[in-house]
Write a structure and sequence with these properties.
binds fe (ii) ion; alpha/beta; Purple Acid Phosphatase, chain A, domain 2; 6-stranded mixed β-sheet; 26% helix
Amino acid sequence: MNFVKSLSLSTIVVSLILAVTGCSSAPEVVNPYNPEPKMASLRASTGDNPTKMHFLVFGDSKGSPEFKNVLKRADALNPQFNITTADLVKTGGGEKGILDYQRLDQQGGWFMRKYPMWPTVGNHEEAGGEDAINNFTNFFSMEKAMYSFEYGNAKFIALPWPKMSEDETKLSWLEDELKSANGKHIFIYKHRPHYTVGSKKYKDVEGLESKTTRLYDKYKVKAVFSGHDHIYYRTKRNDTHYIISAGAGASIYKLKRVKDALANDVYYGMRTKKEIMTGAALYKFHAADGTITDIAKPMYYVVSVKIDGDKVSIEMIDAKTGKVWDKAEI
Ligand SMILES: [Fe+2]
């Protein structure tokens, strides 16, 4: 199925390009959900080499009605562009996939027409049948789920859902991309985290160094953003920051792996059954200094990143209230 062709007229910009000769050519259909043309406009308005920028990171909405509020907050923050950590649909392929992408169109179409939004692929985009990746590709007009782009003094690399540590071809692609960053800040975005304190099992999120994480360290990656485990988590392993931003609307998961946290890690999620039985609030936020704040209802959020020259700062922002829960220079 071709989503570009299936999008309603209101979501498609059709431009008739007249040749210099005066002859009309075939109409060119531009998919407004492809981030590249809007990014080109951004570059045109800020010059080639800005050293200041503002972008948001979010993921794991999976068709939840909460996604609308998350996007409202994202809009209020007025980023220049967005990167996502995937699972924006529940099922990417088959009949369900068609309906899920229609829902994404209805919920997020206005946002994706207004701002560049760079997608990546999660296990839910891959689920549902052989046409799943085609549906992703057609919806965003992105040829590959593994790609990179540059803006000003930063380079962004999108990685695929499957683990890469045993895939020499993909690792060598990644190394070439990292090598050619030439001193820019490097950000990775992908669905599967390398480290978590949430609910995902060890075979899914190993919490260990791998050939991939060693490449991040070797080439001084600034931060690796991921989704999948529906919590918030910020940790630093060796010199690389790992941030789970998975709070765009899908239900928040339990903090079952806090024993894997390092001192000064920051995390938010649902309490374990054992803790809840003691009468504690259902959710909690654990700050870098160890302070714990009770939260009664699930909080959805976005991560905001600002670059000013060498300085990179991040904030984790409550979608409903706008409260900044976590703030750090990384
Ligand atoms: Fe996932």
